[in-house]
Specification:
Helices cover about 45% and strands about 5% of the residues. By secondary structure, it is mostly helical.
Length: about 190
């Protein structure tokens, strides 16, 4: 790899890491404004396991199951990266009688999985963190949850992003009650899926 390619790779990592994390935070705030009962449940969980006297730490993550589920649901539903990183086909492949020639650009569509009603249920277009919690109250890790991609080419910053989101959002909900500017005029918004 020459210096030019190295600089491009570092730039891509920086942009991908900051843009996706900040966009996830924006969507999370929007969902908290539109689902105050979820925000309350997260705050109650934080208050029960951490309190309000100290800052949440990464060691608290296993205790804050509902917050983790809400972060996962935000990533699943908000289409932060509807397409995974584009790839080039290294050799000609045939998949289901369709030939993909060598050198073709491939853009995997993550939304086709993250918003699929066959996987997530008839309410796949509704914000529902409970879909990530099992009957024992533990966090589910469904293989169809792929906002960071899959396989060997999974996002390099996945671990860092999960840590940043947990620390930032747990601290945010611990310290602030998020309220709409005009609570008497609730915004109705939907997500279009076909």
């Amino acid at each position: 790899m020459d210096e030019r390619n190295l600089l491009r790779s570092v730039f891509d990592l920086f942009i991908a890491g900051t843009e996706t994390t900040s966009t996830t935070i924006c969507w999370f705030v929007l969902y908290m404004l539109n689902y105050p009962q979820v925000q309350k449940k997260i705050f109650d969980e934080i208050e029960a396991h951490i309190g309000t006297e100290r800052v949440p730490s990464i060691q608290d993550r296993p205790k804050l199951v509902y917050l983790s589920a809400a972060i996962k649901e935000t990533q699943r539903l908000s289409s932060i990266t509807p397409q995974s990183v584009m790839r080039f086909c290294s050799k000609t492949h045939t998949i289901r009688n369709y030939t993909i020639p060598e050198g073709s650009l491939i853009a995997p569509n993550l939304d086709s999985v993250l918003l699929d009603k066959k996987i997530w249920g008839s309410d796949a277009d509704v914000f529902n963190p409970d879909r990530f919690i099992d009957t024992n109250g533990q966090l589910k890790k469904p293989e169809e949850f792929i906002p960071y991609g899959v396989g060997r080419r999974v996002c390099l910053g996945e671990s860092m992003a999960k840590t940043e989101l947990f620390l930032y959002l747990s601290s945010l909900i611990q310290r602030f009650l998020l309220l709409p500017v005009h609570p008497d005029q609730p915004h109705q918004w939907t997500i279009f899926m076909e």
